[in-house]
Design a protein that fits this description.
It is built from 13 helices and ten strands. By secondary structure, it is of the alpha/beta class. Helix 2 packs parallel to helix 3, helix 8 packs antiparallel against helix 9 and helix 9 runs antiparallel to helix 10. The longest helix is centred in the C-terminal third of the chain and has 23 residues.
Length: about 325
Amino acid sequence: MSVAEKNTNDDGESRVSVFVPCYNHGPFVERCLRSIFAQTLPPRHLLVIDDGSTDDSKNIIERVLKDCPFPSKLISRENRGLCATLNEAIEHMDAEYFAYIGSDDIWFPDFLKERQKLLDSRSNAVLAFGNAYLLDDEDNVIESTADWARADYVDGDAVEMLLRISVPNSTSVCYRRAALDDRRWNQDSKLEDYELYLQLAHDGEFAFDPQVLSAWRMHGYNVSGDLEMMLGEVLETQSHVAKLVGWNADKLAAIHRHTRFHFAEDLARRGYRAKAAKLFVSSLTGEPIKSIARMSARLLIPQTVLRWRAKSSQRKDAERLSLDHVLNNR
């Protein structure tokens, strides 16, 4: 039985429009698209926008979409950036639900079926999200958000979760389309999803599904530099959202202090103790004694222990599972 035959025979009617933004993901985009074709509940419509790729992405997409078992469309144009591309795409979407997946990421076969089912059961939810695997460029599984987000991800009111910088992985999210009528991605923000999540959390609930139904590709990056850049972006985003949702100056100041404390913890975990200590001192007010004690202990951990942890992490890296192994043993 072909993929098209299998999908059209599934029970239930799809009410999800799907979007794939692509920019220079030639090595990955075919696998992404075929993971959408293989959905047990196929999307109502698939839109792909090639955002001015300079590699062979466009040609690959054109070839692969010939196998698409449901309505699909490719738009190819000059580069405008991810947020502008997302805002363009949402204007084409008229289904009840909307999901997008980066062209280097992957959905497992039941992703759309489970997201639609969850949103159908939660009329107050503006979106549904879940856990995801993190992949390297060679399809090795680095980790799963389920390993560390058990105590961080929440079901329901998501504002406090987001202020702890526990943010849904974008490839795990499906939106209620009506929730996006008055919300859009900020084209001036580098943290495109974080700002939108903060606004949507003010509007309604986030429905959480603990299953791992997607995989997000994590390309190489500089930890220290990225964390410092991200802190500035997060603080700027929170200030912008404060004007939109009505946080007063005192609330915003408390949110900023907590955010600095969170980033101090993250820098300390990764061994950047001098930078962590500077942030830590500037963000103590209002933090629980337990959190302060935990952070103080991190700052006092000897370098020999940090090096041992790094070697342990390298050993774990050598034992990574491949994505194919995960898929074949689900």
